[in-house]
Structure formats: structure tokens, C-alpha cells
Amino acid sequence: MSLIDVNLEIFEGPLDLLLYLVKKNNLDIYDIPISQITQQYLEYLEVMKELDLDIAGDFLIMAATLMQIKIKMLIFKSENNDEEDDPRVELAEMLKEYEKYKMVTSFLSERYNKFKDVFYRGSPIFSNEDKHLEVDIRLLIDAVKRAFERVGNKTEIEIEDVPIESRIEKILSLLSNKNYLVLDELFKDEKTKRAIVTVFLALLELVKINKIRVIQEEQFGEVKIYLV
Q1: Which of 65, 89, 115 is a domain's end point?
Q2: Separation in Å, CA 226 to CA 135, 144, 178, 179, 181
Q3: I want to staple 162 with a disulfide (CB 3.0 to 4.6 A). Which of 13, 110, 158, 198 is the partner?
Q4: Residue 7 lies in a domain
């Protein structure tokens, strides 16, 4: 079995993660509950760490910045300062600018995807390097996070490794009896974080070798897994 080499650009940087959390929680950028968002930010970093994903120094710097803002907010509220002195203002402005950048990038990406094959006669042929997920991979991270929360922080007493081949077989077996699987179904019977991570890697391996497709058919809809 070859090593997983799917290119995972989960978050383009700390602002991308923060904006994702703001949107996910339907928050006002100018009135962010800093304690809540800091906690969730740190939880996502922990999940990324468990999945052995690279966490650039910028993410850790932002974590420290959020902690500083959290402390300043306690002082700000206790002293009833003016709104313009709110320690969240600078962060809000950064997020607003980044949101504009993301909107432009998304628009250009949609235009590119719409017209990139217009001159092809028939379907284009892609190499293995071109294969990609058809769903925002951050939704996969959300599923892993939910699975981690379900198993909790109990000490893992498993000694033996969880072979990736076993989880590949499990996914294919489940799909052999169904038209599709909902993403969270893959993790529901796993008892440890190690096993959950192995399922995640097995999912990526099956995408890589073009055995399955991972699709979100509508915004905020269920993430579904199909056999190719």
C-alpha cells in the first residue's frame, strides 16, 4: 500500500480557519464571542495535530493572539471602555478584508471551473496528481472532530496498530450494500482516536486511487460517499 500523498490544503492560514469558524457559527465579525472562538480554534488545531497535518507557525501565533485578546476583553468589559477601544476591532477588520479576498477568489475559481473544459471534445483525462475531493475537506475535519468528541479523552488501551487496509475494506464493504454512505457513518463504530484517524486516512487513500467520490450535493447538505 502506497503512502497517502493527497495534497491537503485545509486552511490557507489562521485567518481562513477563523473566518470558517465565524461563518460556521453564524457570528457577527464585529461582535465575535472571543472566548468561544478561541476555544474552537484551539480544538481545531488539536484535531489537525492528531491527524498529523502540518500546522504552520502562523496558526500558533494566532492562537497566542486570541489568548491575548481574550485577556484584554476582560479588562475592556470591567472598565466600560468606548466601543472603538474594543480589542477585537483589529481582528475584525483583518477578517473583513480576508473575506473580501475569499469572495474574489471564489468568484474567479467558479468562472475557471465553468469554462475550463469548454474547448474539450469529450471528457478530459486527468492524471493521479489531478484527482481531488469534490467537497470542502474542512467538512471532513468537522466529522473527525465530532468523532473525537464522541470517544472523549479517555486513555486508549489498544496496543496493536489499526491497519489502514482493514478500514479500506470496511468502507468498501459498507458501500457494497448501499447506494451511498453519509460521512459520519464511517466513524460511528470506532472506539479510539487512533482508529478514527485510520478511517480518515483510508478515506483519502480510496479517493486517491479513484475508488470512491466524496460529494456535498448542496451547500450545508450532507456529505455523501459513493463508489466510483
Answers
A1: 115
A2: 12, 19, 9, 7, 7
A3: 198
A4: no
d(CA 48, CA 65): 19
Place of cell 507557525: 57
Domains of the chain: total: 2
Q: Does the pLDDT at position 155 exceed 90? A: no
Could you read off the pLDDT of 115-144 as tens digits, one per residue? 555 544 444 444 444 444 566 778 888 899
Show which of 66, 82, 115 is a domain's final residue.
Answer: 115
pLDDT at 55: 77
Q: How far is CA 66 from CA 90, 102, 142, in A?
A: 12, 22, 21
142: number of Cβ within 10 Å? 18
- What residue numbers bound the domain in which 67 lies? 14-115
Looking at the structure, do residues 111 and 159 belong to the same domain, yes or no? no
> d(Cα 163, Cα 67) in Å, to the nearest integer?
38
pLDDT of 2 over the 50 cut: no
